[in-house]
Write a structure and sequence with these properties.
It comes from Hydrocarboniphaga effusa AP103. The protein is of the alpha+beta class. The chain has three domains: about 120 residues, Immunoglobulin-like, CATH 2.60.40; about 180 residues, Jelly Rolls; about 240 residues, no CATH class. The chain is about 40% helix and about 20% strand. It has 13 helices and 24 strands. Strands 8, 9, 10, 12, 17, 18, 19 and 21 form an eight-stranded antiparallel beta sheet that branches. A hairpin with a 2-residue loop joins strand 14 and strand 15. Helix 9 runs antiparallel to helix 10. The longest helix is centred in the C-terminal third of the chain and has 57 residues. The radius of gyration is 46 Å and the shape is elongated.
Length: about 625
């Protein structure tokens, strides 16, 4: 009964250990992984950008459009980006697909940047994209031609200073003469029209003449209220097109080859202190629509003649270039297609001063040792702190080595005890037979089990008990035998010898466990010592510098607390390991005590007859 209980006790312990290990492994398997992938590990920072067409008032399908992203110091950390924005990269919401873009202006003095990004915008729901930066080793990938589709024939940003306007669409329709400019336009720079108009290249007219549909769009800000003037015009014979202002009210006037005329008037007048978006769409179905600030204000069943003469910006006469408009013009775009109302709505909302399309989230830093909080703390640790941390690291390695060695020893002891107990149970109290089988070369027991059993502490206790029993049988002259039966005093003496052996085996199991108690109790105090010293040094440095602020104190305090954290890193694993090992040692100790009772009981039952006693006594 005692042996069966002992086996149940050992088996239950093994099952509990296996269950605990399974729970730990499951917890590790279910641990959350990285929440977000990183497009490219060479970039240190990124920012989430959301394009919300609903917030911008866009109601229809837009498709892929060039979106203006304004960067300023309130939403972007210019100090962490490469010069001239060479490391700027835009990636789609899947964090895998790079988006084409180009930089109109990147001003590191005033921390302003205007970037155009080609984005597929989905109607009715936000479109997320990523802005990556923080890679000083890369080169710029700004590509204005790839930012626009094939139908975009001309784009003037007017950000050139004292130079002819460059066609950002990549079609080569750049101006040939410089224009008067202002730096504080709506989007970067702007063209200032006063005395001289700006002639557009003939190549633009030739390209537009090949398609039946055209879209003109621009931003205008008149110099005076209720001003008159032609913003954009083109004339060939009787045919003409004029986009102009009459007492500040936008209108478009169209004349056909036969002199037929159409006029579409706006509703409200423009003001000198406000930019107004004007757009005219001439469709293939002979319908012309005037848009003001992205909203259609009028249309007519008219047809704009495809003229091959040069168009004029800010006047009517291509020969004299006399200006009839006084004010500023920005972001002139001409397309050889019929842009949708949603397209123009998005452009007016996104490019204006109250951009409701683009929203910015906070910056995210790539988690590395040098850029993360741990790296910052480690860089702030002083020499005394490193000395303390070094001592704690040595203690940690010692405690880990002790836990590994003791864990291996205890597992081996438990396995050997289990093998011996199986043989002890099968012997049914025949100590002589079991002794011969274990110490000899008996073939009845497998060699592996015999060798394993010899390493068991229970085997050493069994051998001690058998040897003590033999000594008593051969010491009859000393009174160890009375009436042919072992006396109770001899039984107690044998028990004492076995107990003595058990104590030595337990001492072997407890050897070096004191090192774990030192790590548990001493680690936090050593770490606290490092923290106190670090705080003292930090405050002494602040007092010497005479500068009291959070930025001066925080790194030193954080570094000082690192010593306490290191102490806890030593103590906590050692505490868990010590408790686990202590429980295992107590289990083995209990197993030994049960074995002592079983051995003495079987000895009293099976060796109380003269035949049994003399059989063992003659076994030498």
């Amino acid at each position: 009964m005692i042996i069966r209980t002992l086996h149940h006790f050992t088996a239950s312990t093994r099952r509990f250990g296996a269950l605990a290990l399974s729970v730990v492994l499951c917890a590790l398997a279910l641990a959350p992984s990285s929440a977000q992938a990183w497009w490219n590990g060479d970039w240190a920072y990124r920012k989430a950008i959301t394009l919300d067409p609903v917030a911008a008032g866009v109601t229809g399908e837009v498709g892929t459009v060039p979106v203006l992203v304004r960067l300023h110091e309130g939403v972007f950390r210019f100090a962490d980006a490469a010069p001239e924005g060479a490391d700027l990269r835009f990636v789609a919401g899947d964090d895998k697909t790079p988006l084409k873009f180009h930089i109109e202006r990147y001003d590191e003095v005033f921390n302003l940047a205007f970037v155009w990004v080609q984005v597929p915008v989905t109607a009715g729901k936000p479109t997320p994209i990523w802005l990556y930066y923080g890679n000083p080793k890369t080169t710029g990938e700004s590509d204005s031609r790839a930012t626009y589709d094939a139908d975009q024939m001309l784009v003037y940003h007017f950000s050139e200073r004292g130079q002819p306007a460059i066609d950002a669409s990549g079609n080569g329709n750049s101006a040939t003469v410089p224009f008067a400019s202002v730096d504080s336009g709506l989007i970067g720079g702007a063209a200032r029209i006063g005395q001289t108009a700006l002639a557009l290249p003939l190549e633009l007219s030739a390209a537009l003449a090949q398609r039946p549909a055209t879209t003109w769009s621009m931003w205008v800000k008149p110099a005076t209220a209720e001003s008159d003037g032609v913003v954009y015009s083109q004339r060939e014979g009787e045919a003409s097109l004029r986009i102009a202002l009459a007492r500040g009210v936008p209108y478009v006037a169209i004349t056909g080859n036969a002199g037929e005329a159409w006029r579409i008037d706006g509703v409200a007048a423009t003001t000198p202190d406000r930019w107004t978006h004007l757009a005219v769409v001439s469709g293939p179905n002979n319908k012309v629509t005037l848009y003001v600030d992205g909203k259609p204000v009028g249309s007519a069943d008219a047809r704009v003649v495809q003229m091959k003469t040069a168009a004029v910006l800010g006047g009517e006469d291509a020969a004299t270039l006399a200006a009839t408009f006084s004010g500023e013009i920005d972001e002139l775009q001409v397309s050889r297609t019929e842009r949708s109302a949603a397209w123009l709505q998005l452009a007016a909302s996104n490019q204006g001063t109250e951009d409701k399309l683009v929203g910015f989230a906070g910056d995210e830093a790539k988690s590395t040792f040098s850029t993360g909080y741990v790296g910052i703390i480690m860089h702030s640790v002083t020499l005394d702190g490193w000395v303390i941390i070094g001592v704690l690291i040595v203690m940690m390695f010692i405690s880990f080595a002790v836990m590994a060695a003791k864990g291996s020893q205890i597992s081996a002891v438990a396995k050997a005890n289990a093998a011996f107990l199986e043989l002890f149970r099968l012997s049914r109290g025949d100590f002589l037979a079991l002794h011969h089988k274990l110490d000899g070369d008996s073939q009845e027991i497998p060699r592996e089990q015999r060798l394993l059993s010899r390493k068991a502490p229970l085997m050493q206790m069994f051998r001690t008990g058998v040897e003590e029993l033999r000594d008593r049988l051969h010491g009859e002259a000393r009174g160890g035998m009375r009436n042919g039966v072992i006396s109770s005093q001899s039984i107690e003496a044998i028990r004492a010898a076995i107990d003595s052996k058990m104590i030595r085996e337990v001492q072997s199991l407890n050897k070096r466990m004191v090192l774990l108690t030192i790590a548990i109790s001493g680690g936090p105090f050593i770490g606290l010592l490092g923290t106190v010293v670090g705080v003292m040094i930090t405050f002494a440095a602040v007092a010497q510098a005479g500068d009291v602020n959070v930025n001066a104190i925080a790194p030193g305090i954080a570094a000082a607390l690192a010593a306490t954290v290191a102490g806890l890193f030593v103590a906590i694993p050692a505490l868990f390991g010590y408790n686990y090992l202590l429980i295992r040692i107590k289990e083995i100790n209990a197993e030994m005590q049960v074995f002592v009772d079983a051995f003495i009981t079987r000895m009293a039952e099976n060796y109380n007859s003269p035949d049994g006693l003399h059989a063992l006594a003659n076994d030498r």
